[in-house]
Description:
39% of the residues lie in helices and 12% in strands. The protein has helices spanning 8-17, 22-34, 36-39, 48-67, 71-77, 115-122, 165-172, 189-195, 229-239, 257-263, 287-302, 316-319, 323-331, 345-355, 359-380, 406-416, 420-426, 459-472; strands at residues 43-46, 87-88, 129-131, 178-183, 198-201, 221-226, 271-274, 306-309, 385-389, 430-440, 443-453. The strands form 2 sheets. Strands 4-6-5-10-11-9-7-8 form an 8-stranded mixed sheet, sandwiched between helices. The chain has a 3-stranded mixed sheet with strand order 1-3-2. α2 packs antiparallel against α4 (48-67), α7 runs parallel beside α8 and α13 crosses α15 (359-380).
Amino acid sequence: xSAAPLSALETAxxxxxxxxxxxxxxxxxxxxxxxxxxxxxxxxxxxxxxxLRQADAVAERLRAARSASAREDLADAAxxxxxxxPIKDLTQIAGEPFEAGSLALQGNIAQVTDGVAESxxxxxxxxxxxxxxxxxxxxxxxxxxxxxxxxxxxxxxxTAGGSSGGAAAAVAAGVVPLAHGSDGGGSVRxxxxxxxxxxxxxSRGLVSPGPHASEGMGLVTDGILARTARDLAAGLDIxxxxxxGDFVPPAAAPASFLTALEQAEAPGxxxxxxxxxxxxxxxxxxxxxxxxLERAGELLRGLGHELxxxxxxxxxxxxEAFMPLxxxxxxxIDLPPEQEAQLLELTRWLREQGRGFSGxxxxxxxxxxxxxxxxxxxxxxxxxxxxxxxxxxxxxFPQDLQLSDGGADFDAQRAFTPWTSSWNMLGTAAIAIPxxxxxxxxxxxxxxxxLGATGWxxxxxxxxxxxxxxxxxxxxxxxxxxxx
Length: 484
């Protein structure tokens, strides 16, 4: 792969124009997945046979379009045709491995294809592989029991974040231009920040979990990780949309996020709240994370936006209304009793905590989280967006997060990620943007910021603002793996 590979949309255009051969692209990307991708632990499984079959199908579709002089129609109908877009190993593809980072599922082959994977496959993309995830996607680091850990290419001693850590590492290291992820407490935005790329958590209801999964507690949604705002929009176009039986009403959305972005005028002037205090915890925030926040503030003011610093709308103690939902979610993972001993410490601890809550406790937690979200969104209503650091510090060393005691592990995660999970409770969209970089102990590291929406359907606004910042203060698009 070249040092500065094409974006996803540029790749698709080159394929349509015949400047790039899809079989060559598939071979190069598979080689990169097994080379650079392996260095950063990006893939749980490289799916060579599936990818080569997909390349054959794309080649035939491109030949047909060229013979009919329909390349422009193809650009509208399948804007990411032939583009490498891996799928996280918490999402099923029938006939392919599905292990979710757990020894309890080692060797498991999926029997169905999840809806979001159906959408990605139907778009004519090249899957390349299933990206690495920690056990059942529970922690904010990616240390799967079944394979190599995911590491940020900026410093391979440090985590790529989680739970979409493999996806972020694959994008940041230049293996693929964009990737699928999922986010229940920051699992797209945390790895995006650790790896210096963009990560979007859509609004609740925008991306259906159907037909094989349910909304459950409303915390988790599928999302996209990419290096550019236009690629992020194009990826969101693929996965967004309702399915029959959805419990959550569809979020407001344009016909095409990419078209809306390309036609958008510069957003503003916006009213942006600046939040420095943690929400899930009250940690000491690293000076470089604050510097990233201030850099973002200066850029946004320069664009004509009005920024106002606000206090935290709720305390870490009030945030704990979230705990029963997260732990009961872990407890409901259907496993035979004999497999319990195969689980990692954090998963066992979460499941034990979840089993301690009654149905009444869970109902109260639902109500408590909704009440907290209502109060918070009412308090934030005067603002269009909320600006926070993405993380409290640089990409963490895994040993500082993955601890031998489950409760201590969870507390360390809260301190590292004190803002992201609150937007899962609120249900509104949020994006991580890799604006800042700073040298720590002789190694340059990324420090992202988060922009969280205060109302529904804010994806076009977040994408437009990310695109504006991308032009104003560009970030490195690819980082070759660094081994200090």
